[in-house]
Queue: 2 jobs
Job 1
Amino acid sequence: MTKSALSQAFVIWFLAITCAASPAAFAQEEAAGRRGLRLTTEALTVENRDGDPLYQFARFQVIDDDGYTVEGARGTYESSTETLRAWGDASQMVKIAKEGEESFTITASQSLEVRFASESLRAEGKVEYRGSGATARAELLLVDEWQRLRELVESLLDSVADEESRALVEAFFSGLEPTGRLFLMIGGVEIEREDAQLAADWAAFTEDDERFVSAGGRAPIELRLDRER
């Protein structure tokens, strides 16, 4: 069997909770509106753990019903938590992309974790984000609700000793809704827009790209604004 034929042999459709005990149970899960995923891979194993299937695959692409596409060298999918984890290697970066009005692409050299139910994401290792007219790079990218990122942000603020600087940043976060979605980038952050470039230890921006915050810790923020002459 050729490599392409082997890959095609493992093209499967599965629901977020699959391997139902009976056709009736399977129909109930489908009627409940569970997310559908399409996996194409060169190798696949499925292991049932107390009735919960764990999928493991290599050299793969996953497409979900909401338009997300994930690619990587190795990956796993847990049905019970709707969690996809992916890893890159020397020959392939991990990548997630979304089409549509809010399109974006994220690549990472080490790992990616996507929780489809909450639409949260964690990417590590030479992360690059492209979307909303901007390109951003960092060592770590987190996308989640503000209430779930609060503790981590508070630890970042420990390095901000200046009272005025801390008050400014705290005022930003106090204006966020607990369930508002936030992009948080940490480690060697570089952000490039058509009219501005920024370098910082960490930075955060809201999902609608209307609000942005960063604070100097070990090193000051560097910002360049371009203007027409």
Job 2
Amino acid sequence: MQFSILEEKLSTHLWATDALISQCRMPEPSDRTTPAFTDPKYLPFYFYLGQQATPKKIIQIGPKLGLVAACFLQARKERVPKVERWDIVNELTHSYKPPIGTILANTKMHAPHLEVTAYSFRVENKQMYDLAFLTEKFDTIQTKAYLNYLWDQVKGDGLIVVDYIEDGTVRLAFDEFCLIKHREPYRMPTRYGVGIIIK
């Protein structure tokens, strides 16, 4: 993984978000015009990451309507190895019910062969993953719980990619986690800040 290339692509704005998610399902058409979705330093980062990372199995907490997966897998379409499995973990909250149909459709858009599973955080999972995404903002306690969970799910030398590390509560949990695990993360200047930990 060449992190300097990732950062260079991010700074040159090679891809616009709309070009990457133009065929994706959205709850409302107006969602495509929000500042977050039009920011070239947000979702396009996951496309650039997909150009370099070579995972076969991925786990994600915070599916973001399947848009992170759509961008990442679009970059992997003509590359090997193919991503074989993408597992989505339901968040520790009952106040939000994600639109699973939309998430699954967007996730599989560029990888129809892909095995996609959504399961509860509390379900025992025997898979081991090459790449983990934490792409939603949580409070410090939840962020720590998710980071520890993902650490146990990722293979040695696997990647944990954490969004929103510029948010105070997430940053606190992220920095403390890296200190405990004796890891120096790579920090990417995306819209909300992304940290990448190599296990």
